[in-house]
Fold these 4 entries.
Entry 1:
Amino acid sequence: MKIKVLVVDDSALFRQMIIQHLSSKPNIEVVGYAINAYDAKQKIPQLKPDVLTLDVEMPGLNGIEFLKQLLPTTPLPVVLVSSLNLSVFDALSAGAVDFVRKPDMSVANSKNTFFTSLVLKVQAASKAKVRVPQTGSGSTPAASPAIPQTPARFQGKSTAPGPAALQHSASAKPMPFPPLSRNVLDSTIIGLGASTGGTEATLEVLKRLPANIPGMVITQHMPEGFTEMYAQRLNRICAMEVREAKNGDIIHPGLALIAPGAKQMEVIRSGRNYMVQCRAGAKVSGHCPSVDVLFNSIAKNVAINKVGIIMTGMGRDGADGLLKMRQSGAFTIGQDKDSCVVYGMPMVAYNIGAVCTQASCENIASVLLNHLKK
């Protein structure tokens, strides 16, 4: 059956471009369009689309407020169409499945890249499990724990926890966990990979971890420009320092490095240190950055203890790399089916024997900490 899509965009020119391209695909049917959120609210019950493409910045009711009103009653997969703007992360937090960056018409192939990505993400969204954020009167969801206390030796983080972190801290039960030993911190590297649904899933894991965590390296499928903003967002909310990786960054306890968009990130050894190598390269497993590239480098180059975590996403990127990590002695965790937005990458990893244990998004942090404690 064809995927029925409703296109929501206030720009007539851009709306027509999206409609024309999506309609050219044999497995997609554009059932209609809406010129704003109010128009969309009227047409959704009539047209019954499988997926919405939604412009984030619209006059009147913007995309974020629209999602907050729509999804609690109509849990419809939504793919955001956004410029380079922080508001995309607020929309993802409100329940959107994924996003595509609007093309820069002055850059060669930008339009083709946009449409290729849009089609893939519409297809992924059609199979996605919509996550409807829980709401309450002045309280946060019970699944959102407090950020653990930062030990004195890790208080050099440059950016303090923001309002979201303080809100979690005030309303949820703290995670009781003794500090990890210096030996564990210095002798372990943690790799994490995610795709569709992963921006919020990775946040769910990181915000449950203390600042005194072994060095982490993370590949999240995301366009260039957005990875820096994403890292800044995580850094405001989480206890450890989080930043976009730069070539030559040394991996150390209390730091999580996010692979930069449009670059492949690998872990290499340099003397007594491990560092990241970030460089432009061809797509691997269909992606740049690729989770397979990161995991393969950890399996090959890291001689100390290693942990691999594979989370929600379409396809199989990271599955083969995680298998190599496990074969090289790593402890590996796969996100379980029930908590995945798209149970693709973790499913393939589990089916080929790459996963030591599966856990829900909310429990991955505790599984990781219990393993490190042992």
Note: The longest strand covers residues 28-34.
Entry 2:
Amino acid sequence: MTDVQRVTGNGNNNGGAARLAAARAAGEFLFLSDIIGRPVHTPSRKRLGRARDVVARAGEVYPLVEGLVVATRGRDPQGQVFVPWKAVGALGPRGIALGEEGPFPVMAAERTPRELHLALDILDRQIVDTLGAKVVRVNDLHFLRAGPEMRLVHVDVGARGLVRRMGWQRPVDTLLRLMRPGARYLLKERFVSWKYVQPLSADPAALHLNIPQRQLSELHPADIAEIMEELDAQEREALFSKLDVETAADTLEEVDAKLQRELIEAVAPERAADIVEEMSPDDAADLLKDLPAAQAQEILEEMEHEEAEDVKELLAYDPDTAGGLMTTDFVVLRPELTAAEAIDWVRREASEKEAVYYLYVTDDAGSLKGVISLRELVLAKAPQAVADLMSDHPVTVAPDAGLLDVASTAAKYNLLAVPVVDAQHQVLGIVTVDDLLDRVMQRT
């Protein structure tokens, strides 16, 4: 499906895709570059000025164009009038013909929250293409005009859009048709449907344009982290502030330590605490270690007591040891449980745990007695006891074991996670292979 076809997908807001599709046969497509800078004339052929911007109504799947900003006296803001879209007649290369003489109102100094000035707010800005999970820059905007209405339907992120805006499209197209008639540039526009993009800005007014933000939380946190790295500091903070707490926590776990610190320092302590609570304890501890002591303490004080205590325990260890790398998110079983009972227990506990590759069997004192893989438990017969299924000689490491020792142990015994135990053989946490690899790679 092409980007132009994709615009006819689902949408139930005003100006949704179904309505847009029905209008396509009777409409025409226009670009913002076809409008900006064009002279504007009244029916009596009197020149009103030049089109400076297009105003659309934010908050819809495909924003409805409400009118034009026309500069009547050079670049003086006081010389700008607003021409309602219903007054616009023909649009052509020689200019824009109006269907009304006017007079037209002077542009108000204050903008409404739903007012989107497309050239000023969107053109040349970076946006998140939530379909392709990347950052792109807007080179032009694409409209569908059908009857008395015109709606913004695509952003043009291709080189062709930039060439069009510079007024070079005709000579460049002619040259390429002669030299490379099959060039991709000639055959395919790079459009992204408006409903898949989110404008980014550090301007608080622009952040409340009521444009749907739910697509951001549907991206994989690794994709959002990659997007973050391509933005400047202000735009990163703007995007991070839009994420829900869980998505923000997952994203923090994917970015490097420097960027983690930058993002968490930009939010209030209460929100920072909510985000840190959603992170795995080991990642949360690593983050807080990189913060100034006073700020880390402030976040800990805002956290729920149980989560804060888990993180404090990990903060006591050297980050380059098993204790500093372990997580306290793991599933513990009692040996007297049957396989069926153990599976029910895992179902209840697993949603709150980082790793469930292995299940650790402990006695009343918390001492490690054995380990059983999730696969072995699922394949076991329902009445079998966990004590009969577990391996009763689990491989462990001490909390002060170095990273290379932990890595060697995991490699030697082909483990996805290694339990960390104290002198009394009580389980303190587990080191997962993915965390181990991340840390070793950071140190090499």
Note: The first strand starts at residue 28 and ends at 31.
Entry 3:
Amino acid sequence: MAIRSSKTIREMSEINVIPFVDVMLVLLVIFMVTTPLMQHGIDIQLPRESARGVELKDATVITITQDREIYIGDKSISLNELEVELKGRYKGRTDKEIFLKADREIPYGFVVKAMARIKGAGIERLGMITEPVE
């Protein structure tokens, strides 16, 4: 860009930073607005719809009763033995899928502990079984 004066023409060698600053300010505002939402999460109400049914023909089902008793099929097992038992059952298998049924009165923390043991056994897919909405 050339600047004309009455005596000489000289070249301007400076970069125009105004558009760059505008873009940076817009990005700054976007990050300032979205960052608190990512840290605290969004408060939502989950829908009360029934999920599509799944056939449990040959699937392994783990059941947790209200008394915190764990069953693999009909076999009673403790929480500490769960990971070892599942590693033995799924050793060498490629389709590592399991379903979990937990009583609604069980504390969330206990269910998470059971899920951690299931994942620790190398189970890749974990499904939760619920009652359908009538």
Note: Confidence is low (pLDDT under 50) at residues 39-49.
Entry 4:
Amino acid sequence: MEVRKPYFYEALLSFGCLMLVMGIGIAVFGANPHIPMLIGTAIAAVIALKIGYDWKTIEESMFDGIRQALQAVVILAIIGVLIGVWILSGVVPSMIYFGLNILTPKIFLVATVLICSITSLATGTSWGTAGTIGIALMGIAHGMGIPAPVAAGAIISGAYFGDKMSPLSDTTNLAPAMAGTDVFTHVKYMLKPTLVAYSITLIFFGFMGAKYGGMSADLSAIEVMKTGLVSNFQISPILLIPPIAVIFAISRKVPAIPGIFLGIVLGAVLGPILQGVDFGQILSAAYDGYVSETGVESIDSLLTAGGLINMMYSISLTILAMMFGGIMEKTRQLEVIVEKLLRGVKSAQSLIVLTIATCIGSNMTMPEQYIAIVLPGRMYSSAYRERGLHPKTLSNALESAGTLTSALIPWNTCGVFLLGVLGVSTFEYAPYAIFNYTMPIVVIVMSYLGLLVAKIEDDPETVLEAV
């Protein structure tokens, strides 16, 4: 059978079926996205057979897709190791402890954003932050008479700031991997628009907090957490050296894998000195993660994390998504869809807007933030390069929309999770999740001002092989 270019409806059918299966699996049955993603991959393969490709070619396209994600897979794996070692050595507990000291009733909402930001930066997880410290902060807000949606908006804004900017975050590593640059270049490039959106967020909550500044608060939940951390870990400013070293590595353009590994080594050195742990415990935490047994539920939920094995959720989903993307790309199904979408897109700014819109649409139709980063990244990577745009321009758009808008959609896995832990519906907290919806707007505005349109020729050494 002769191979032909797929018709638009055929390519659209692959995407449509994936959306349908993902939507039913996640929203109706509460399933993880992995098997729906695999079913979508099978459907794309069937359509590829229909247009003339043999199974060997289809199989090779899946393997090619996986190969292109191998750097992201390796980084995700060593980040799991890093988190486990950093918790065991007291690095993460120290960062959280110092963050909790910021809290004062007069600036509760601003302090909430800052505390959640620090915690999420330290752990790389918005979910972990919202599900632990976020719950404690919701209780304090209730005691102060602060409306739950306002408090939830502050928690989510801070949690997603940290998730977006932390080199420990899986989405922060996934976005540059899909675009074709390294994580440190990606984080550095995101800094300018992120600080603008973050400043707007802090100013907003500063004004909102003025209404409640004179009220008293029951800080017992926070004091319990602080006491629990001090009782179980040696808290010391010295333990801030590993994250500072990683930040320094970012500034010096050290490649991601050795930069992160440096953080692991420093944590492993400080752990025996300050926490009295041995090499066997370090190896165990690196593989299985750290299991917190402080007796304080909020601490144990937050610090039972990390380890190579616990990154397999993200790694396996990335592999499955890249199998789907590999088929869609090599059988030209992706090409015909992108051709339609790019009609009328003349400028770099309009391409960035299209990317952001696609990420939001993915979050709405395939309700999982990983997919909202992987698929648009695969779709537009070539278009950015053909226009001479640096991949960090794409990765910034992917992260700013794919990660952050996931929390604003009620049926997305992020929206469902946040409702469950904070007890506030998406429609209630969305107006106050300032950072989440301000970030895509800031990126668009700054792009049209010419501040976020990077050219390949300006930084060619950080352009990796195209995905």
Note: The longest helix spans residues 183-209.
